[in-house]
Design a protein that fits this description.
Number of helices: 11
Order of helices and strands: HEHEHEHEHHEHEHHEEHH
Strand content: 5-15%
Helix content: 25-40%
Number of strands: 8
CATH class: Alpha Beta
Radius of gyration: 19 Å
Shape: globular
Number of domains: 1
CATH topology: TIM Barrel
Strand order of the largest sheet: 6-5-4-3-2-1-7-8
Oligomer: single chain
CATH architecture: Alpha-Beta Barrel
Largest sheet: 8 strands, mixed
């Protein structure tokens, strides 16, 4: 164990507040299946875009499916990039839904992909397999969305959500449509409950769109958003804001406690942010290389592996907290 003088700033904050960060039983297998995306958003922690080549191949998916089916982990969370752009996406979803013990599947949908040539299959496929949708919708006003995600993205997203509503998403209790709000700048998300009410009213009144939940997620000061902060002279002040807003009551709900995060190569991380920072877990001596892959993991003992932390972890613990499922307090 490190001494207090050896702790990083986040671990020091934990120690100062007499709280600890430990894993619980794995409940979510989160696969970042590629960095390919049809958009290039300023807040993207993955640095995803149309020219990225990193995608999960079929052999890696085969090994993951073999491992996953033997576990009792109930949820598969697919993220990227735009997961639906990966060639084996449909096979992956179909396989998991056809397990002897079918699993809940969530996809972090970039809704504009529905309107792209060659991806018209996406809405019906998601409906037919009852895939829960978590879709980026940073604002209900066009200017804010287009500034963060690109010109025309707002209108394309609205059209996509209307198509999903027509299929039952956001209306049928078996077809969940959740939105994600990311701040359009170097500030923390507002109250999730209040913003949800505003979203629901605006989306219904102006666009006749219904959805289930709104998840407020803070922007992480890494990758493309870090570059944006540095270019606008806000990097230091935003990191200071995150540190000063540290909330120890968020610790129990952090996604790193119950999630196994996996890269497009099958490598295991504590969370998607650690993955982008290449903060991998320590590989056991039985591994043939330095990376710990999912098929090396024993889900029954995974909780014993320490969680790797860094200054970026203040992004998940600031204010009301921020996780893949939104606010934590």
């Amino acid at each position: 164990m490190p001494t207090l003088s050896q702790l990083n700033a986040f671990d020091q904050a934990l120690a100062d507040h007499h709280v600890s960060l430990r894993r619980s039983r794995p409940e979510i297998l989160q696969l970042n299946i590629g960095k390919l995306c049809n958009l290039t958003c300023t807040h993207c922690h993955v640095n995803a875009g149309p020219k990225r080549k990193e995608i999960m191949d079929g052999s890696t998916i085969d090994r993951i499916l073999e491992w996953f089916e033997k576990t009792n982990i109930p949820t598969l969370d697919l993220t990227g990039g735009t997961p639906e752009m990966i060639p084996d996406y449909r096979r992956l979803v179909e396989s998991v839904r056809q397990f002897e013990q079918p699993r809940r599947v969530m996809t972090r949908l970039n809704a504009t992909i529905i309107n792209e040539s060659g991806y018209q299959w996406v809405p019906e496929f998601l409906r037919d397999h009852q895939v829960e949708i978590i879709a980026s919708m940073p604002c209900y006003q066009p200017d804010n969305v287009n500034q963060q995600r690109g010109e025309g993205v707002f209108d394309s997203s609205i059209l996509a959500f209307q198509k999903l509503n027509q299929l039952g998403y956001g209306r049928d209790p078996q077809l969940l449509l959740n939105f994600v709000y990311n701040p359009n700048g170097a500030f923390l998300p507002p109250c999730q409950t209040e913003l949800t009410a505003d979203y629901k009213q605006a989306m219904d009144e102006h666009f006749d769109i219904q959805f289930n939940q709104l998840y407020c997620i803070a922007n992480m000061p890494i990758a493309r958003f870090a570059s944006h902060l540095k270019n606008t002279g806000q990097y230091q002040s935003y990191n200071q804001l995150l540190r000063e807003s540290f909330n120890p009551s968020t610790i129990d709900g952090l996604m790193c406690r119950n999630t196994i995060n996996v890269s497009w190569l099958g490598e295991v991380f504590d969370c998607d942010f650690n993955q982008m920072l290449k903060l991998s877990l320590d590989a056991p001596s039985s591994c043939s290389d330095d990376s710990l892959h999912l098929w090396h993991i024993d889900p029954h003992t995974f909780a014993n592996i320490p969680i790797r932390t860094g200054a970026h972890c203040f992004g998940c613990t600031a204010g009301s907290g921020s996780s893949c499922g939104g606010a934590l307090t």
